[in-house]
Amino acid sequence: MSLFPANSGPTVRAVHDEFHGDLLEVSMGPQHPSTHGVFRMVVTLDGEQIVKLKPVFGYLHRNHEKIAENTSYLSSMPYTDRLDYLCSMTTNWAYALAVEKLSGQAVPDRAQYLRIIMAELTRLVNHSCLVGFLFNDLGTSFTPLLYAFREREKILDLFESLSGSRMMCNYQRFGGCRVDPSPEWLAAASALVDNFPRFLDEYETMLTGNEILLARTQGVGRLAAAHAINAGITGPVLRASGVDYDLRKVDGTGFYPRFEFRVPLGAHGDTYDRYMMRILEMRESVKILQQAFKTLPAGPIMDPKAKLRGFRPKAGEAYGRLESPKGELGFYLISDGSPNPWRYRVRPPSLINLTLLEEMCLGHTIADAVVILGSIDIVLGEVDR
Amino acid sequence: MTTDVDLPTAVSQQFPSATPRPSLDCPAFNVPAGDVLAVLQYLRDTQACDFLMDVTAIDWSAEASPRFTVVWHLYSSTKHNYVRVAAACESNVEPAMPSAVVLWAGADWHEREVYDMFGIKFTGHPDLRRILMWDAYPYFPLRKEFPLAGLPAEMSDADINAEIGVGVISAPMAGGPFVATPGEPMSDAEPRAKDEAWNEKKEKPE
Questions:
Q1: A121: which of B77, B85, B143, B159 is 20 to 30 A away, CA to CA?
Q2: Could you tell me the pTM of the whole model?
């Protein structure tokens, strides 16, 4: 039985039958620099062409869900940092969102703005990292990556001065945020954001039109929209295939409806579109941030009625979701009225976006598989949980 | 195609066996295990719920009956609806559920993960193997009777086992921060070491 709707076949080149005797199986990873962590691909090759690809993961599995079910709601907050360790601010927020849905907790205006500021700064961190690594995967050893890391470190410095940690921020709370940024912090962040488009322009001037990038990414790893929907793929990978699904618009998470921004969409669903999606999203994030810094209201950052210690939401279930830089990050929580969640489930966008990796890679060369994987943007902390 | 009735009404008209499920956010239904595929297919084809966002399961404790519930989260990219469908497994000992892989390619890994963590068999799944743990792993870790510290087991490969002479051992819980019980103040609620699955209260489960 076919898994996919008719007339939407994948764009896969035929594999030559006459070489069937010479198939070669290569195990790439788990210790391989191009797999972005401990991820393994068992690739069957016909010459250089991929005829079969089996992702193997679970090396970082520590049963995050079990641990969270055995501890209080608040104690899981710092642990969610370790899911997608590049984007702890959004992971925190997604978890806080789910718990707030469960307990009906209100969030003050200033905290809502701060959450959007942190989430969009995180998007800049994640996407600049991704494009840097993508060029690394393409073989431009390190220079573009270090350009991207230079910008990323500036934002991480801001996170560190605010929350005490570069990457494990542990910043969100149920009903608000943990620390209020000082006026100096806001001025520094605002200046950084105003300068960010210069980095993007510089980066794009050097690289977007680069002939090698175009040759290696255009038409490579195509993903049809119908297939992406069928596999539940979300985030920039889905939007690169032209499906307009961004929770910031669809759900209107938090105060996002108050901001003017556009959702970029791709036309071809290939690696190049996925690369451009990140660049364009960074430009939109800059717009959101500039508006947020201008209109940030004064006021408390925590709801005075919020209860952190001995927190027991009433029995019930809720699914909180957020547009994380990688896609729809969901937390499905079931409360039985005790201080621990009865069921705590993470919907990891990184894992689900990998579902069609084989289909994207079929018929391409092994060097392309590295680039395609890079363009999906996975973090193994979230894939394996 | 436009429908005048909203999704919950439409589903209960179409499937009298579907009952509303208490939920704090989106519409939710409890469905008998036998009707799940029909309900999911109806939601996908007639109600345009084209995204299967999540599949997971709940263990309602070893004493509960029905013990296991499987939960699907669907989303419609045209109507922007979310809907949750839940079905209880009929057997508590050998839980099973029809596989939704025929409807969504994305169900494949979700169902493998549920099988890996809960031991729920999805009938009709083309390749139901463990996904996060290794294939020979003997336990289902997200079941409630499985202790937080883990249980001793063989390593993934026999030759590794033979070489190092030890398998997987339970995690040392002393000093572990990941535990909490009902009660205040914090010193009682979140002690530094605890694993209530076995210790002094009852025997260590095998």
A1: B77
A2: 0.85
